[in-house]
């Protein structure tokens, strides 16, 4: 598998028109409703959106971890050319933790409270490779060292509750790195942490990905986090990507009114004294999406044209947006 | 269902959404009705209670009237004809009493003791629990120490010791069942009252310097009602079951006032001789009663527990 | 402990005068007096209690009025039978209850899970003694598959007679053990289900799946280890309940354990045996509580750590 993986030269991951719906009693919730993006080896892509925009479900879909009543109903997830939509659970299980790893939002909840750290790390190795216990343990210790945990040998013997939140998230990152995956999906891994620790972890994650050529999908609601980390960015709204492009393009020259709104709500030094912008209203109910553009009701530029669904307008260099009334390319943020 | 309609608030003029006028009670009824089994059991419980209340009118014969009972009728199988010419539906027992009548009267005794003890225990438990929660400190400590100690022993053991001490009889069984049960209520009430009393509305009642009794009865009590109802249902079933068990062991009711448990116990002597009906049918009656109450209680727990509701 | 012994002793003291039963009606006042003095019943209550307490501390709980043997010896003689029954029941409850509970917890909406849950309400509701009678009627009287009473052939294991090592003994043990297990089976099942339902939605289970850990290991290690804490705690505490409830099962199936002895002694007002039984049960509960505390700290690393710190 690894041999086949190294010979593959295309992007690590291509997500194409992904649709993941949740079939509840009240109807189908279209949590992910046509999401596309590409990640190349060693590249970091930021998936940005407010809560309920479908970014977490996108991450879980890539991991094959969408549970009932949710289902991937359309599109493709091509990991190194292999379409994983409709793949068997066996296949997923082989890939998960080995070639694709995930880091979750709340480090307090991601480690099993009744199992020691070494147990939880060694099982991740043993799930994919037949190595003896001593080797696995040594690898686990090295991985802890790699993510900047002091005295890793002692940490191995502890239980999760004996570690701080930042430490636990490092352990979770170490676990994700154990099998040197090609792709890591990080779902708001720093949101629950202190700002200083947040910065450290982001820095370390960036270093590690550069070093191993790992592709990284960083899911967050915080544009500031992504700005310093990602190469590309995809802004999600109501289950769709509304704008995508390189980090400079999107942050300096946003086209979609939602991105403009998001950028306006980020506090920064050069806007000192100014009032922060708010996006009025709330994210739409995914159960009853209005016809046309989902952002219409909150959009300052919305009009009758927006009652029809805007198509994704692609431009060179991965630049794309989905709007009838985009801001001018040179429009100020 | 009628009471639900009268309880509904009159529709506000100009109100568009009809859902908005649904009262909590209506929502409760519709949630509860989602389980057909629970609704069936609810009506079964009502029917059983009516049966027990109107026992003298419904039962074919009066099993206590010894003049009507002859030994010649003993251990007749169901459907056979008795001396007085009537057909016995469920057979007769070892002394010739019609089993159906004995069961209906036995049900009456079982329910009286079970429900009666549950109500008294509930009253005691609610008062003790509220006092413990409200007083706090040492009083709370002492009360809860006693409650915990009692609850660490199985109910049957405590009831057994009490009945060994007090002797047999309906009144003594009632006392034993009350003593066994009060602690469950006390603990439930205290636990939910402790949660409630920390909430703002109790604080604000304090600030209005309302009297303690008023705060306890008008503010705390209604808010701990849901768990009390659930525990009450389940405990009533337990009490009926426990009484039957004690009577079976020969410690509960006197033979002159046979409950369902005593009837089953009498029939136990006959199972090896093939007279199965003497212990089976009272058992079925007991079973229907307890299972129905428990299923209703289970459903109530699901409906009233806000944590579980979607 | 001391307080409880006083409670039990004074309780039994007021039950009734054993002399009335022991001595025939024809005996004159002089015979009566001699018997009372012989048994030490002429002394005032507090003397009797202190004598009892003094002897109890030396391991002497008095002699049975009926058997004229040390009461403690009588009870200890019957204890292995009761323990064998209770342990078998516990084993059945665990072996059947945990897998069924896990099944129901993983697929809470499935039909099989609903059947299991409704079945568990039956397990809760059915009075043990009646199920015992019904089992006996079906398997012993009608089908004649299993013997109805007694312990069957026993084998000496480390100086204790046990039934489970002979085929005959096992066939005698089967029905009482299943009968006694039913309630706890339902309890374990429901606890397990509730635990699984809570744990499967935790992030750490999703994270374990994201690591590529197999389903088997997730269920057997990640989920099971988390739910074992409440299950073991409750089961440990319920073991005392099993011993207490074996009174009922032993009476139904004439299983020669200490519960049956207790009921017989109550019938005969054999005061020292009753007191001895209750004292031993009390001791038993204290030991069980200690063992559960220890088990709890072994299972839950969070508790273990606190103890190391303090």
Low-confidence stretches of chain C: 14-26
Biggest beta-sheet profile of chain A: 8 strands, mixed
**Strands ordered across the widest β-sheet of chain C:** 1-2
Oligomer: heterotrimer
Number of domains of chain C: 2
Provide the CATH topology of one domain in chain A.
Rossmann fold
Mean pLDDT of chain C: 75
What is the typical, i.e. mean, pLDDT of chain A? 83
Helix content of chain A: 25-40%
Inertia-based shape of chain C: globular
Give the strand line-up of the largest sheet of chain A.
Answer: 6-7-8-3-9-10-12-11
End-to-end distance of chain A: 46 Å
- The count of DSSP E runs of length 2 or more, i.e. the number of strands of chain C, is 2
The biggest sheet of chain C, with number of strands, parallel, antiparallel or mixed sense and barrel status, is: 2 strands, antiparallel
C-alpha geometry of chain A? globular
Q: Tell me roughly what share of residues is in helical segments of chain C.
A: over 70%
Q: Class by helix and strand content of chain C?
A: mainly alpha
CATH homologous superfamily of the largest domain in chain C - what is it?
A: MetI-like
């Amino acid at each position: 598998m690894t041999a086949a993986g190294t010979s593959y030269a295309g992007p690590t991951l291509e997500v194409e028109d992904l649709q993941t719906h949740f079939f509840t009693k009240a109807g189908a919730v279209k949590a992910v409703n046509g999401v596309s993006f590409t990640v190349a080896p060693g590249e970091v892509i930021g998936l940005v959106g407010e809560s309920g925009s479908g970014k977490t479900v996108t991450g879980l879909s890539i991991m094959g971890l969408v549970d009932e009543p949710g289902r991937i109903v359309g599109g493709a997830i091509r990991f190194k050319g292999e379409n994983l939509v409709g793949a068997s659970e066996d296949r997923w299980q082989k890939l998960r933790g080995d070639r694709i790893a995930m880091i979750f939002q709340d480090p307090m909840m991601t480690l099993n409270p009744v199992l020691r750290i070494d147990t939880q790390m060694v099982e991740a190795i043993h799930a994919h490779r037949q190595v003896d216990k001593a080797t696995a343990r040594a690898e686990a210790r090295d991985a802890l060292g790699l993510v900047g945990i002091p005295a890793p040998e002692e940490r191995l013997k502890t239980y999760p509750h004996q570690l701080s939140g930042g430490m636990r998230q490092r352990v979770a990152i170490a676990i994700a790195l154990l099998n040197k995956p090609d792709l890591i999906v990080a779902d708001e891994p720093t949101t629950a942490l202190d700002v200083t620790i947040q910065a450290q972890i982001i820095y370390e994650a960036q270093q590690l990905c550069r070093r191993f050529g790992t592709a990284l999908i960083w899911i967050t609601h915080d544009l500031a986090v992504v700005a310093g980390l990602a190469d590309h960015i995809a802004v999600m709204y109501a289950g769709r990507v509304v704008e995508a492009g390189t980090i400079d393009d999107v942050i300096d020259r946003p086209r979609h009114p939602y991105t403009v709104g998001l950028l306006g709500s980020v506090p920064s030094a050069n806007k000192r004294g100014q009032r922060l912008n708010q996006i009025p209203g709330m994210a739409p109910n995914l159960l009853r999406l209005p016809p046309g553009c989902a952002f219409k009701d909150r959009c300052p530029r919305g009009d009758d044209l927006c009652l029809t669904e805007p198509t994704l307008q692609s431009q060179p260099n991965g630049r794309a947006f989905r709007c009838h009334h985009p801001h001018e390319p040179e429009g100020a943020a | 269902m009628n009471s639900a309609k009268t309880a509904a608030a009159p529709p506000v003029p100009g109100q568009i959404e009809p859902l908005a006028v649904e009262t909590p009670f209506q929502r409760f009824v519709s949630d509860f009705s989602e389980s057909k089994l629970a609704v069936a059991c609810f009506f079964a419980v009502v029917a059983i209670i009516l049966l027990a209340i109107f026992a003298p009118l419904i039962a074919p014969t009066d099993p206590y009237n010894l003049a009507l009972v002859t030994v010649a009728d003993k251990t007749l199988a169901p459907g056979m004809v008795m001396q007085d010419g009537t057909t016995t539906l469920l057979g007769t027992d070892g002394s010739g009493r019609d089993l159906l009548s004995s069961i209906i009267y036995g049900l009456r005794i079982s329910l009286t003791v079970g429900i009666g003890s549950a109500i008294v225990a509930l009253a005691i438990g609610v008062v003790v629990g509220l006092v413990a929660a409200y007083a706090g400190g040492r009083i709370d400590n002492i009360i809860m120490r006693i409650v915990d100690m009692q609850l660490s022993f199985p109910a049957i053991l405590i009831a057994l010791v009490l009945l060994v001490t007090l002797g047999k009889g309906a009144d003594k069984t009632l006392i034993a069942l009350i003593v066994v049960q009060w602690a469950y209520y006390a603990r439930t009430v205290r636990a939910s009252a402790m949660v409630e009393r920390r909430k703002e509305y109790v604080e604000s009642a304090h600030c209005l310097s309302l009297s303690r009794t008023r705060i306890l009865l008008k503010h705390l009590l209604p808010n701990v009602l849901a768990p009390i109802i659930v525990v009450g249902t389940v405990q009533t079933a337990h009490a009926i079951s426990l009484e039957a068990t004690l009577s079976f062991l020969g410690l509960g009711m006197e033979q002159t006032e046979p409950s369902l448990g005593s009837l089953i116990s009498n029939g136990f002597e006959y199972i090896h001789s093939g007279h199965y009906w003497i212990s089976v049918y009272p058992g079925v009656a007991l079973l229907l009663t307890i299972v129905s109450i428990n299923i209703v209680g289970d459903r109530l727990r699901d409906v009233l527990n806000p944590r579980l509701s979607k | 402990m001391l307080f409880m012994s006083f409670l039990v002793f004074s309780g039994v003291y007021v039950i009734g005068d054993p002399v009335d039963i022991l001595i025939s009606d024809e005996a004159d006042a002089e015979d009566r007096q001699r018997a009372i003095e012989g048994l030490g019943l002429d002394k005032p209550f507090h003397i009797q209690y202190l004598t009892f307490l003094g002897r109890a501390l030396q391991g002497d709980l008095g002699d049975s009025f009926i058997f004229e043997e040390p009461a403690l010896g009588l009870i200890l003689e019957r204890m292995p039978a009761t323990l064998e029954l209770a342990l078998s029941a516990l084993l059945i409850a665990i072996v059947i209850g945990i897998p069924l509970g896990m099944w129901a917890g993983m697929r809470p909406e499935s039909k099989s899970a609903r059947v299991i849950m409704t079945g568990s309400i039956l397990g809760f509701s059915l009075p043990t003694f009646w199920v015992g009678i019904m089992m006996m009627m079906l398997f012993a009287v009608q089908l004649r598959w299993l013997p109805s009473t007694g312990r069957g052939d026993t084998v000496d294991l480390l100086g204790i007679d046990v039934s489970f090592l002979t085929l005959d003994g096992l066939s005698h043990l089967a029905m009482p053990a299943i009968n006694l297990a039913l309630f706890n089976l339902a309890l374990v099942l429901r606890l397990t289900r509730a635990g699984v339902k809570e744990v499967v939605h935790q992030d750490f289970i999703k994270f374990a799946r994201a690591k590529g850990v197999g389903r088997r290991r997730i269920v057997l290690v990640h989920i099971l280890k988390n739910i074992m804490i409440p299950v073991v705690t409750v089961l440990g505490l319920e073991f005392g309940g099993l011993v207490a409830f074996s009174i009922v099962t032993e009476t139904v199936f004439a299983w020669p354990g200490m519960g049956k002895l207790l009921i017989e002694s109550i019938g005969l007002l054999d005061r020292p045996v009753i007191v001895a039984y209750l004292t031993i049960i009390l001791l038993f509960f204290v030991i069980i509580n200690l063992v559960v505390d220890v088990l709890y700290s072994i299972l839950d690393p969070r508790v273990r750590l606190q103890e190391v710190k303090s």
